[in-house]
Write a structure and sequence with these properties.
With 490 residues, the chain is of the alpha/beta class. The protein folds into 3 domains: 2-58; 65-98 and 111-310, Endonuclease Chain A (Endonuclease, Chain A); 324-487, Endonuclease, Chain A, CATH 3.30.870.10. The chain has helices at 5-27, 34-46, 48-58, 65-82, 98-109, 125-136, 157-168, 179-183, 188-198, 249-254, 269-285, 324-335, 351-362, 378-385, 388-394, 428-433, 444-460, 466-470, 474-487; strands at residues 114-122, 142-147, 172-178, 201-205, 221-222, 226-229, 233-237, 257-259, 262-266, 309-316, 339-343, 366-372, 397-401, 405-407, 411-414, 418-422, 434-442, 462-464. It has a 16-stranded mixed sheet that branches. It has a two-stranded parallel sheet with strand order 8-14. Strand 11 (339-343), helix 13 (351-362) and strand 12 (366-372) form a beta-alpha-beta unit. The longest helix has 23 residues, at 5-27.
Length: 490
């Protein structure tokens, strides 16, 4: 019997290998993009047992059904409350395609477009923290803070101090932080001890605690960044609540510094931004905060200035059955008539986005892409570079922001009066795996401010040409290609 054991084991392995391949062909393509399905099938056919293990761990791009059902419940509540919100005025002066885009975003994310807002762009890292601190010092009712990464350090200490002062005044301060991202940050224990000391009520987002029944694909993260003060002042954009070096030893050794862009907003849209926080609070705690934790839109001061902005908050992420952010970006790029300007630290688009961007070039539009010259994440940086040749050949102007800075700002502007700013990168991870928040803005004054920011990127950086790119060594482009293949494993 034992003499035949090796042959028996070999036979079992052959049968198991065949069964895995057949099962993969049946299971993996269901509800998955062809590129992602092909990447998973390639991994499983080349390394079947390892590939299956990875698929079981990170192959599901959606959160558990119960959580998605809770998100749909919230969307119904938000949609019902939003019926009372007034439609923005001035539709007759909008681009013809914009009302339909507002309707699409509302159908997917429940939140309507709202008029009568103001927004100020803040590109200075410390000035952004200081502006949040100043706003918190005006709070009389509540402060809501939500960040992918939260860290108490010399850079962010002023905001922690402002939250402490607010608590002492009797203001309720709530804070949400992504479980994985914040806990892998240096000083995380001290950070949450400080939050406890000053009296902030805080909760983890998307905790990974299998022994406590809290588990989903571990790299499904909440990547949102926002602050809301009394439902009247809001902040959103790309910046995390942490020192500009991210307190990482390797970043400090390389001298890396993050360059961000945040928007300070007032007006009715702050109510919608707060709605995203209230939704995430409910998803994490089961506590549905009542209307005392917001300000009715009718009570929000609406500026009389003709330059006020129409804004719409667009949440996206694995709690939704649709890729809200991707659909927004695709609609904007496809609707542009003169120019498309993209800023993204991690630019790994899917096939549809690449077609939209290159098609804009073929239509004769001015298309520009701002990215960092150096990368902080090797695999993503190489995957991003794999698209440069195709983009340059189509006519996209690529601008490289110089090291030691990482251009971490995330925004897109088209023509002269429409822009998006928020937490979403233009990559597969942000489209499918991360909870993100975006703000769509219609208003020439806002886009004019963004044009000034973009010019600052040009002045600081340099343009990558097709001729220069063609001189890239084969070893580098080989790594780029491999990284591009693995990026589709979603």
């Amino acid at each position: 019997m034992f003499e035949n054991l090796p042959a028996i084991i070999a036979g079992i392995l052959v049968i198991a290998d065949f069964a895995i391949r057949v099962a993969a062909l049946i299971v993996i393509p269901r509800g998955r993009k062809p590129t992602a399905a092909m990447a998973w099938l390639l991994a499983i056919f080349l390394i079947p047992f390892v590939g299956v293990f990875l698929f079981l761990v990170i192959g599901n791009v959606k959160l558990p059904k119960a959580r998605r059902d809770r998100q749909r419940e919230l969307d119904r509540i938000i949609a019902e409350k939003a019926k009372a919100m007034p439609d923005p005025r001035g539709e007759e002066s909008w681009p013809g395609w914009l009302p339909a885009l507002f309707r699409q975003n509302r159908a997917l994310g429940a939140l309507p477009a709202l008029g009568g807002n103001t927004a100020q762009l803040i590109g200075d890292y410390q000035a952004s923290i200081d502006a949040m601190s100043a706003a918190v010092d005006t709070a009389t009712r509540f402060v809501h803070v939500e960040f992918y990464i939260v860290s108490w350090d010399a850079t962010t200490g002023g905001l922690f101090d402002a939250m402490e002062r607010a608590v002492r005044r009797g203001v309720v301060v709530r804070l949400l932080a992504d479980y994985v991202a914040s806990r892998r940050t240096v000083g995380h224990d001290e950070t949450f001890a400080e939050l406890d000391r000053i009296g902030v009520t805080w909760k983890d987002m998307l905790p990974v605690r299998p022994l406590h029944g809290q588990y989903q694909r571990p790299d499904l993260r909440n990547h949102r960044k926002l602050v809301v003060v009394d439902g009247r002042i809001g902040f959103t954009g790309s910046q995390n609540l942490i020192d500009r070096s991210y307190r990482s030893e390797k970043n400090i050794t390389r001298g890396l510094q993050w360059q961000e862009l945040m928007a300070r907003v007032t007006g009715p849209v702050v109510t919608a931004l707060n709605g995203v926080f209230l939704s995430d609070w409910y998803l994490e705690t089961g506590e549905l905060l009542d209307d005392t934790e917001n300000v009715p839109v009718d009570d929000v001061a609406v500026p009389a200035s003709p330059g006020s902005l129409v804004c719409q908050i667009v949440p996206s992420g694995p709690a939704y059955d649709t890729e809200n952010g991707l659909r927004l970006f695709l609609a904007l790029v496809s609707s542009a008539r003169e120019k498309v300007i993209i800023t993204s630290p991690y630019f790994v688009p899917d096939e549809a986005m690449m077609y939209a961007i290159t098609s804009a070039c073929f239509r004769g539009l001015d298309v520009e892409l701002f990215v960092s010259e150096i990368g902080d994440q090797g695999s993503v940086w190489h995957a991003q570079r794999s698209y440069y040749g195709e983009l340059l050949s189509a006519g996209v102007k690529i601008w490289l922001y110089p090291g030691p800075y990482i251009l971490h700002a995330k925004h897109l502007s088209i023509d002269d009066d429409v822009a998006v700013i928020g937490s979403s990168n233009m990559d597969i991870r942000s489209f499918s795996l991360n909870a993100e928040v975006l703000m769509l803005v219609h208003g020439g004054s806002f886009v004019e401010g963004m044009r000034a920011v973009e010019q600052g990127y040009r002045d600081a950086g340099r343009q990558l040409t097709l001729e220069e790119w063609k001189r890239e060594p084969a070893t580098a482009t080989f790594l780029d290609g491999i990284a591009r293949l693995t990026s589709a494993l979603q």
